[in-house]
Design brief:
alpha+beta; five-stranded antiparallel β-sheet; 5 helices; about 30% helix; 8 strands; Aminopeptidase; about 180 residues; three-stranded antiparallel β-sheet
């Protein structure tokens, strides 16, 4: 089993491997993931392995961080993912998270996101962290506020994309547009 990158009171976060393809297939096809994050086109185990290789694993190699598998610390059950992404359309990394519905409303997203944020500052020396979310994703908005991020502005990640909300760490020097 891969070594933990982050441990909290209740969770272990570790790097994804291709052995996690079954879980990725499940998570990325949850109706809530499709609604709030988007369709990543992952329909088979091979698609899931490719997603892991070209997404999280490539990000670890290029940036030293990425999305991590979130597991219950004692039980080892896989419940979601949380970590940092570096999108070409944002100046700084953004924190992302998604949990399977059975793990919602238990504080796991907040616990994982707070730990990732602390690691980003302490280990990677990142001063500014973004987060993006759909305007109607109230649960994610609440998590972002709990970990100390604040709403900055609405943005589009591409010309044909829907508007989303951009949050940032309080010490960020982001120009707000009106």
């Amino acid at each position: 089993m891969p070594q933990a990158v982050i441990e909290t009171a209740r969770l272990t976060l570790r790097r994804f491997t291709e052995d996690d393809a079954g879980f990725i297939l499940q998570l990325l096809n949850e109706s809530s993931f499709l609604e709030f994050v988007g369709d990543k086109g992952v329909r088979t185990l091979e698609d899931a392995r490719r997603y892991i290789r070209e997404g999280p694993v490539a990000c670890y190699a290029e940036h030293g961080f990425g999305l991590y598998l979130v597991q219950h610390r004692e039980e080892g059950a896989k419940i979601g993912m949380c970590g940092l992404l570096k999108r070409p359309t944002l100046d700084d990394p953004d924190i992302g998270f998604a949990l399977i519905p059975g793990s919602w409303s238990q504080g796991f997203a907040t616990e994982a996101a707070q730990a990732v944020l602390e690691r980003a500052r302490d280990l990677h020396g990142l001063k500014r962290i973004f987060a993006i979310t759909a305007p109607n994703n109230d649960a994610s908005i609440q998590v972002l506020k709990k970990i100390g991020l604040r709403f900055e502005k609405t943005v589009r990640l591409s010309d044909d994309a829907d508007e989303i909300l951009l949050f940032s760490t309080p010490d960020a020097e982001v120009q707000s547009s009106t």
